[in-house]
Amino acid sequence: MVEPAEVQHGLEDVVALESRICFIDGKQGRLIYEGYDIRDLAARSTFEEVAYLLWYGRLPTATQLSELTRRLVELRRLPDALATEIDELPVTAHPMDILRTAVSALALREPSETKPGESSIGGAQRLTAVLPSILGRFHRRRAGLPPLRDRPELSHAGYLVYALLDRDPTELEARAIDVALILHADHELNASTFAARVTASTLSDLYSAVTSAIGTLKGPLHGGANERVMELLDEIGTVDRVEEVVKGKLSRHERIMGFGHRVYKVEDPRATILREWSRRIGDAHGSLRYYELLRKVEEVVLREKGLYPNVDLYSGSVYSLLGIPHDLFTPVFASSRVAGWTAHVLEEYHDLRLIRPTAKYVGAIDLPYVPIAQRH
Ligand code: COA
Q1: What is the pLDDT of residue 306?
Q2: Consecutive sets of 10 residues in the chain, 376 residues long: mean pLDDT of each?
Q3: 109, 226, 320, 348: which could form a disulfide with 312 (CB 3.0–4.6 Å)?
Q4: For position 188, what pLDDT does the model report?
């Protein structure tokens, strides 16, 4: 028995387990998936290729990639009963709540994947493929768009855009979304992945682990930050107001979403890549307004607070320019991170040890029990 150490609030700097999936060098600003630098993957790879890398630990051959792509297309289809259940959920709900509920409900329809210890790469592929279909089914109903059709020729990124917007992305837009999906696919022991691994470490199933992860990603300190960045830009309005609004927030000790990171002490490499995509997509859409606002926000936050942008700062501007509603930003994040969650859950099963830290007790002890009639 190890003596309890000092409390590491928020588990900061605690090394909880060994993993071969993802490495973050917070001092150098580097992110590595299975040995490959994120900058190479973002420049040369596709989401499907990265998902294969995370699940199998190596880049696929051309045959393996086309086989996985075909499988993911096949696995997009929602069971009819689940589609009907999604149609009965309130249109006013946040899409992250829909996603969490639908994954949980899907588990009831796919019992073979939910037996303890029997989850497989097949389940990982099913969950990854199906998230855009769940989102499309829900969003199209509330937005009055026609029902989803099979679009086997579309990649995960292309189908996600089609599912949400009922249009095909341009080549540039499809690449921008594919890059965003690559950049979001994994990030070591971030809060939602940790939640997934904690669930898996009890020998619970993959679908339960992903349900936990979706609930964790939803929070504004994690995946919900990109949505809040766009709210900030709406509040600011024009570049000449950035200084006043941002300084005002900082003086009231409010957090500026899209800045700061538990692990990166320099710029998040994903922000560097997405900044350039924000400019490119802005240029193609004839509007650099978001890009210019964000550049100015960056300047003020760095000067006033010494904080660097994280992945969430620029992703929302790319999604907004495509026409994706703000409340779908975090679900788009989930449609990518699911590849990482499931890879981590499978790794957890492989190296299983119940995750169960301890707490430093700061409450009372040995209180005399007072019968209820004598309490006041
Ligand atoms: N805006 C303003 N101040 C911030 C900040 C932000 N985005 N992020 C951190 N800080 C400040 C804190 O207020 C604190 O200041 P203090 O020491 O004067 O109290 C200091 O920096 C340390 O912050 P702390 O919350 O302890 O760091 P953390 O490692 O726990 O937080 C985040 C990491 C990501 C939760 C935090 O940076 C944050 O809330 N960022 C905004 C949300 C966001 O973009 N999330 C997406 C992450 S990818």
Answers
A1: 96
A2: 74 92 96 98 98 98 98 97 97 97 95 76 96 98 96 97 97 97 97 97 94 96 90 96 97 95 93 97 96 97 96 94 96 98 95 92 96 96
A3: 226
A4: 96
Count of other CB atoms within 10 angstroms of residue 376: 4
Q: Which pLDDT belongs to residue 224? A: 85
Residue 312 · residue 225 · CB < 8 Å: yes
Please give the C-alpha separations between residue 218 and each of 183, 209, 228, 310, 327, in angstroms, as whole numbers: 18, 15, 12, 17, 10
- Give the span between the Cα atoms of 190 and 108, in whole angstroms: 27
Find the residues whose C-beta lies inside 6 A of ligand 1.
10, 221, 225, 255-262, 305, 307, 310-312
Sheet holding 30-33, edge to edge: 22-25, 30-33, 36-37
Determine the pLDDT at residue 120. Answer: 86
Count of residues in the chain: 376
Q: Tell me the two tokens of residue 67.
A: 């086989």
Q: What's the confidence (pLDDT) of residue 213?
A: 98
| pLDDT attached to residue 112 | 77
User: For residue 22, which phi and psi values (nearest 5 degrees)?
Assistant: -145, 140
Alpha carbons 162 and 151: distance in angstroms, whole number: 9
Residue pair 195/212 in contact (Cβ under 8 Å)? The answer is yes
Contacts of 258 (CB under 8 A, 6+ apart): 225, 226, 228, 229, 232, 297, 309, 310, 312, 313, 314, 316
In this prediction, residue 322 carries a pLDDT of: 96
Q: How remote is the CA of residue 305 from the centroid of ligand 1, in Å? A: 10
- The Cα–Cα gap between 248 and 234 comes to 16
pTM for the model: 0.94
Residue to substitute in 24, 259, 263 for testing ligand 1 pocket (most ligand atoms within 8 angstroms of CB): 259
Nearest-10 crossing angle of helices 171-184, 312-322 = 150
Q: Please give the distance of CA 279 from its chain centroid, rounded to a whole number.
A: 22
How far, in Å, from the CA of 224 to the mean position of ligand 1?
14
Q: Which of 9, 12, 262, 264 to mutate to test the pocket of ligand 1 (most atoms within 8 A of CB)?
A: 262
Strand positions, DSSP E, the chain: 22-25, 30-33, 36-37
| Block residue for tokens 């991170």 | 337
